[in-house]
Here is the input.
Amino acid sequence: MKHAIIYRHQLFKPSEIFISQQARAMQKYDPVFVGRSVLGKAPEGAKVISLAGAGSYQIYKNVVFRNAKYFERLIKPLKPALIHAHFG
Here is the structure.
């Protein structure tokens, strides 16, 4: 199945459950959640990529300069078919 990147700076905020609901409703794509931080509980079985494992310099570059190299390196092997950025 093809991957769809679901991007949100702050993933799984309790007030934004619609993002997970939209992703769960996808039939042609396997969603991969990508964001700077994870604030709530990810849906069961969800694939999640965040800056949690990045060093402070990578986080700084992403926040200040919008540098996405850290994410690019982790997402590239998935060969995503599309990216859906919330509040982009």
About this structure: The longest strand covers residues 29-35. Residues 9 and 36 are 5 Å apart (CA to CA).
